[in-house]
Amino acid sequence: MGQRYDQASAAATAEQWRAADWIGILLILLSIDFFPNLPDASLDSSWMNGLTAALAQGAVPGSDLLFTYGPLASLLTAYAGPGFPLGLSLALAIAATFAVLLRICTGHRFLWVAALVFLLSPSNEALFYLFLGVIPLAAIHIGSEPWASRVPLIAAAVLTPAMTLAKLSFLPLSTALLVLTCAHEAASGRWRAAVAGAALFGASLVAMWLLSSQALSDLPAYLLDGEIIKGYTSAMEWDLGMVIAGVNLQLIETLLIYLTAALVLGVLVPRAGGRASGAYLLMALAAVLAVVIKAGVVRHGGVHSIFPWMLLCVLTLSLAGAPRLPGLARLSFAVALLMTLALAPIYRGDGRSVSNIVAAAREHAQTQGLDWQLVKRSPGYWRRYTVAVPSQFLGSLPSPLSGLAERVHNAIGLTLALISGDESMREATSRAHREILDACPLTRVAGSVDIYPTDINCLLVHGMAWNPRPVFQSYSAYTPSLQILNRAHIVGADAPDHLFVDVKPLDGRLPVLEEGNVWFCLAGRYRPSGAMQGNFLHLTRARGDCDTTRETGMHTARLGEPIILSCDRPQVVASFDFRATEFGRLALLFYKIRRLTIDVQTCDGETRSYRFVPSMATLPLPLSPLVENARELRQVLFDGNMPPGRRIKRFVIRESESESPIPGWATEYNVRWYEAAVSTPAASNAMPAVFALPQFPSLTSPAP
């Protein structure tokens, strides 16, 4: 393998900077989101705006707020607010450091790699993963060169903590890279560099925490708050249903990612120069790739799914000084680039881009008098369609250059803001506010307020005093511990004076899974205040206590086994104990296991199928009657007039036909039954009929 990286790094670092290198750095800097994201009516905008508002009001991440994002969240979200200037400054510093490290690693290919990043990187987060990926390669390239050549690595040690304080999921990866890199430096006889790197990382972490207006004593709680990401995989994994002729394209893509990653490691690691350096490079790159790939394949869809392919594109070009890439590197680069271009438009739109292509083809078939169901899988039809109306077909294809689309958006926004003197931003913000107000016809109230499950922007736009629960987005209360913290918020003396409650679970989940354990507290601690406000139930705090639940029995069931309930029972309160198999737990480290679905049949004969997340059903929740919106929630908790037909007659929990072939859940699970009594608020005029008296016997009768 020759001198491997040693001679290459010497040539790369000693070579004078060319005009092309400065153009490459400019492209990297322009790849940062330098124009702030403005509020809108979307779910993501709601949590971004809510997080920004909570931090501005002095909320402490890790105690007051339990979310994957931290006090420097604007570094990733680029959301308009008081944290945006600091976030932009740090993002530019990281981008500049990344550009220098990338130039060291790629040598004469730097401009082409920078152009790829500019055209393909859809977000700050994508660029930051690339930044972490080149750190180990740069450490190998620089080797034992003078301290002046190590400035980019020193800058990386100082800036990486900012990413950790922006998003908690960067913490384990940053820590692993720090430990491995310092160990490699020490093993190479560079003890001072190892100690300095660790000291700089720690000092920067503390300094940036303080810079974000947080107390030093609160830092450990944030760093040790792993609960919010503990249940992420099982709760948030998604499947676009990309199955054609029985072939699961997403599963094949995942296998291809891991195979390509192995090929890339096979090219880079042997050229590290020495067994110790090779071991370091293998472990460091494997750690980065494992995290980035896992982030992409858990929730197929969205921009995360192209991050690993982008990283593989960059890594395959990181052989500075090599005039020609090895054959495996060229193959890996071709595969990674092709997959990035092919998948970016699909995943960026969560599969809606595919829907647009299909919709255009279906429209053409219908205009030709063809039966779409008969021709949609016919290669002959697609061939005739693309030849007959190429403009219609090409117009339905989204742009694969997702990064370029973001660059154009930023440039247009900044240009309009500069020309108009910020008037364009004010108009865009005002327009977004009107859209949010139209979607949330709430009456402004005095006192503290919280909103369920996600629409924080509704409160903020109306100017209400938001009093957030710790996990301020209900879908993120993945585990019992997080649900208990949210319940304590309702129980405590500082509970909100008002609640606006809607029922709209994420990703087709069983509605009661999202903070169903809190519903008992709503019945005991609050009362309705007037009529429904749009889709929201307005509740006012009253003098009452949360319910108490008492376990009355347990039933062991098997996946796919029907459980029969009686239509004479006005309430069913239950919790569920599921256990992942050993193989399932191992699979969750790198991929995901098969989802669970619950099929329910109501007493009026209707059937529904929902996503079932085991970790969110560990605490007692009101399983029956079936509640699908806030009006029904009011009927159940307060009015006592829920139609008997909405009671659940039977349910089946089974494995769903998801993209994962791995049946990772144990076939047996336990259902625990409870009786619940609610302390009625003194100011309420209606007795909660469903939860007022314990009426559920100890065991159900399973189907024969």
Please characterize this protein's 3D structure.
- It is a single chain.
- The chain is of the alpha+beta class.
- It has 3 domains: 344 residues, no CATH class; 45 residues, no CATH class; 155 residues.
- Helices cover 51% and strands 11% of the residues.
- It contains 28 helices and 16 strands.
- The C terminus is likely disordered.
Descriptive terms for the model:
disordered C terminus, 704 residues, 28 helices, 5-stranded antiparallel sheet
Helix-strand blueprint:
Elements: H1 5-14, H2 19-30, H3 43-56, H4 74-77, H5 84-106, H6 110-120, H7 124-142, H8 151-166, H9 170-187, H10 191-211, H11 219-223, H12 227-230, H13 232-236, E1 243-244, E2 247-248, H14 249-268, H15 275-298, H16 307-316, H17 327-348, H18 352-367, H19 372-375, H20 379-388, H21 390-396, H22 402-420, H23 423-439, E3 448-452, H24 456-461, E4 465-466, H25 480-491, E5 498-501, H26 516-525, E6 526-528, E7 537-541, E8 548-558, E9 563-564, E10 572-577, H27 582-590, E11 596-602, E12 607-612, E13 621-624, H28 630-639, E14 648-655, E15 668-677, E16 701-702
Parallel strand pairs: 3-4, 3-5
Antiparallel strand pairs: 1-2, 5-7, 6-7, 8-15, 9-14, 9-16, 10-13, 10-15, 11-12, 11-14
Helix pairs in contact: 2-5, 2-6, 5-6, 5-7, 5-8, 6-22, 7-8, 7-15, 7-16, 8-9, 8-10, 9-10, 9-15, 14-15, 14-16, 14-17, 15-16, 16-17, 20-21, 25-26
Task: Offer a concise description of the structure.
The protein is of the alpha+beta class and 704 residues long.
